[in-house]
Design goal:
- The structure holds two protein chains of two kinds.
- Chain A is built from six helices and no strands.
- Chain A is an all-alpha fold.
- The longest helix of chain A is centred in the first third of the chain and has 27 residues.
- Chain A is elongated, with a radius of gyration of 16 Å.
- By secondary structure, chain B is mainly α.
- Chain B contains eight helices and two strands.
- In chain B, helix 1 packs antiparallel against helix 2 and helix 5 packs antiparallel against helix 6.
- Classes of the chains: A mainly alpha, B mainly alpha.
- At the A-B interface, helix 2 and helix 6 of A face loops of B.
C-alpha cells in the first residue's frame, strides 16, 4: 500500500512540473520537482486544515489529502539528489546540511513518514478527533525537519 | 484674591479612560503579536483577535466617544495641517485639544495600517499549510500566502509609523517641553485649549459589544 501511494505521489508531482521544466537542466528539474512537491504537500495540508475548521468536515476529502501527504513524505528521499543543493545557485531554502548530514536528514524524513502514515490511517477511518490530534503531530514532524534543514525566507 | 497667579495651569481632562486603555492595550498586544509571530502562533492569533477588537472599538469611539477621541474633532484639511506645520518648530507647547492636525494623520495612518494587516492576518496561511488565520479556509493556498506576505509587509510599514510616532513624542518632550506620555497615562494635560467632553455610557457599552462581537466572530472563522 505505501509503495502504491508513493508512486501516485511522484506521478502527480511529475505531471505538475513536467510542463514547466521542459528546457531545464537535470539539476533545475530536480529542484523544481522538489519545490512543486512541497508546495503540493502544503496545499494538501491546508485542505485538511480547512476541513477541520468546519462544523461538518468532509471525511472523504480529508482521507484523500492525507493519502497524498503520506505519498509525498515517501517521495522526499528522491527529492534531494546529489548536487542539487544551494551550491547550484538556484533560489532555494534547502540548506547544504541536508547533504552534509544525510543520516540526520533521513531520520527527520522517517519521522514525517511515520506520523503521516498515522494521519492517513486516522483519516481513512473518518475519525475527525484522531485526525485533529494527528494533524498536529504531522505538522510537528514537518517542523522537525524544517528547523534544522530549511533556511529562513530571504 | 491675594494669591499669586501660578504659571502652571491645573491639569484639565484630555483623554478619556477608554481611549487611554485602547492606546496602552494596543501597545502591549502589538508587542505580543510581534514577538509571538512564527514562534507561538496560538498566542499570535489571540493577540490578533485582541487587536481587531481594540480597533473596532476605536473606530466606534471615533464617531461616538469622548470629544478628543472623535475623528471629526481632530481630522483637518490640508490648510490647517500646513498652518500647524509652520508652528511646529516653535519652542512652546502645542495647545491643540488632543491630537494636533499633523498627529491626527499619523493616528489615522496607524489605525488604517493596523486594520488592514489584522484583516490580512485572518486570511493568511504559512507555507506548510499548518498554521493559518481563522478565515484562510475561504481562500486558496496561493492567496493565503499572498495575504501572509502583505501581512508581514504592512507590519514593517507599521513599525516605521510607530518610530515616527515615538520620535514626535520625543520631540515634543525635548523641544516643546510637553509631556505627551504623561497625558496618555493620567488623561490630564496642562495645555489643552478646551477640556474633554466625555462619551456616554451607553455608547461605551455599544462599542464594547461591537468589539467583542467582531473579534469573536473572526476568531470563530465567521461560523457562528
Amino acid at each position: 500500500m505505501p509503495e502504491k501511494t508513493s508512486v501516485a505521489g511522484i506521478a502527480l508531482v511529475l505531471a505538475l512540473t513536467a510542463g514547466a521544466a521542459v528546457a531545464a537542466t537535470s539539476v533545475e528539474k530536480a529542484v523544481a520537482l522538489r519545490q512543486a512537491g512541497y508546495k503540493e504537500m502544503g496545499k494538501s495540508f491546508k485542505a485538511i486544515n480547512d476541513e477541520l475548521k468546519k462544523d461538518a468536515p468532509d471525511t472523504k476529502l480529508i482521507a484523500a489529502e492525507a493519502k497524498k501527504v503520506h505519498g509525498f513524505s515517501l517521495a522526499i528521499p528522491k527529492w534531494f539528489p546529489k548536487d542539487s543543493g544551494p551550491e547550484t545557485g538556484i533560489k532555494m531554502r534547502a540548506k547544504a546540511d541536508i547533504w552534509a548530514e544525510p543520516a540526520k536528514f533521513a531520520d527527520a524524513t522517517k519521522a514525517l513518514q511515520v506520523e503521516s502514515q498515522k494521519l492517513r490511517v486516522a483519516a481513512g477511518k473518518g475519525d475527525i478527533e484522531a485526525v485533529k490530534v494527528q494533524f498536529k503531530a504531522t505538522g510537528g514532524a514537518c517542523g522537525g525537519c524544517h528547523k534544522p534543514f530549511r533556511a529562513e525566507e530571504k | 484674591m491675594s494669591q499669586p497667579t501660578t504659571p502652571r495651569v491645573p491639569g484639565v481632562a484630555l483623554w478619556d479612560l477608554p481611549t487611554r486603555i485602547f492606546h496602552w492595550a494596543l501597545v502591549v498586544l502589538i508587542l505580543v503579536a510581534w514577538f509571538s509571530a512564527e514562534e507561538n502562533m496560538l498566542l499570535h492569533r489571540w493577540s490578533g483577535y485582541g487587536v481587531l477588537g481594540l480597533l473596532v472599538f476605536r473606530l466606534w469611539w471615533g464617531v461616538a466617544g469622548g470629544s478628543t477621541a472623535r475623528f471629526a474633532s481632530f481630522l483637518t484639511g490640508p490648510s490647517a495641517t500646513l498652518a500647524y506645520l509652520k508652528t511646529v518648530g516653535e519652542r512652546s507647547p502645542s495647545h491643540a485639544a488632543g491630537h494636533n492636525p499633523v498627529g491626527a494623520w499619523s493616528v489615522v495612518a496607524m489605525i488604517a495600517v493596523m486594520l488592514a494587516l489584522t484583516v490580512l492576518g485572518l486570511f493568511a496561511g504559512d507555507i506548510d499549510g499548518v498554521e493559518s488565520g481563522p478565515l484562510s479556509y475561504m481562500v486558496d493556498f496561493d492567496t493565503s500566502r499572498l495575504c501572509a506576505e502583505w501581512h508581514e509587509l504592512l507590519f514593517r510599514v507599521l513599525q516605521g509609523l510607530v518610530v515616527l510616532h515615538l520620535l514626535a513624542v520625543a520631540y515634543y518632550w525635548a523641544w516643546k517641553r510637553q509631556n505627551l506620555i504623561g497625558a496618555m497615562i493620567t488623561g490630564k494635560s496642562a495645555f489643552a485649549a478646551e477640556p474633554l467632553r466625555r462619551g456616554r455610557l451607553w455608547s461605551l457599552l455599544v462599542g464594547l459589544i461591537l468589539a467583542v462581537g467582531v473579534a469573536w466572530a473572526a476568531a470563530k472563522g465567521l461560523r457562528l
